[in-house]
Amino acid sequence: MNFTIISLGGSIIVPEEIDVQFLKKFRSLILRHVKKGRRFIIIVGGGKTCRKYQSAAKEVTKATKEDLDWIGIHSTRLNAHLMRTIFREIAHPAVIRHYNEKIRTKKKVMIASGWKPGHSTDYDAVMWAENFKVRTILNLSNIDYVYDKDPKYHKDAKRLEQISWKDFRKLVGSKWMSGLNSPFDPIASMKAEKLGLKVVIMNGRNFKNLENFLDGKAFKGTTIE
């Protein structure tokens, strides 16, 4: 049975404080679709939790890139353990750290976290897609669309409903920085392009829209392929 792969941004789970209402709604949605026969691999990011800890480290000392990445990785594991806990009855009993782990499970949900320095959990989602021969990754973020420039600072920013990997990579560049806040990380983007994957980016808080996507209906978001 094919898995649906979700790269879930940590900033949706913990925008400032832990968003319990989001977790309740997300849990209900996943449970509904599990009953319909779906299985999920949910890779959880670090989000603002990651960036707050990284910022604190940089204020105290000259932190290395590797140490900053490890802070980020452990923040993804904290968020992932929270996510595994709310799906305890139907989830694989351990948070998966490495996408090459050989997992034998009949559980409907697997929760994964970050692995090692050099990229975000977006890259891990791409590797899960390769290993399980899944062609589409759903990236849930706190944005409705990708824009050609940052709409916070540019009133003329245009939303992009469809974009090629070539053009998307021009927007995000090709270098990874610890705590990078990008619609889909540059290292993951290079790998996804190479594998010929499709990535759909949408607002994870718009549950009706997310439901539409899972049901194969029209949805709002940016498709990269």
Model description:
The two termini are 24 Å apart. The chain has 225 residues and is α/β, with parallel strands linked by helices. The protein has eight helices and nine strands. The strands form two sheets. A seven-stranded mixed beta sheet has the order 3-2-1-4-8-9-7, with helices on both faces. α3 (47-60) runs antiparallel to α4 (65-86) and α5 (121-131) packs parallel to α7.
Write the layout of secondary structure elements.
Blueprint: E1 3-8, H1 10-13, H2 20-35, E2 39-44, H3 47-60, H4 65-86, E3 109-112, H5 121-131, E4 136-141, E5 146-147, E6 159-160, E7 162-163, H6 165-172, H7 186-195, E8 198-203, H8 207-214, E9 222-224
Parallel strand pairs: 1-2, 1-4, 2-3, 4-8, 7-9
Antiparallel strand pairs: 5-6, 8-9
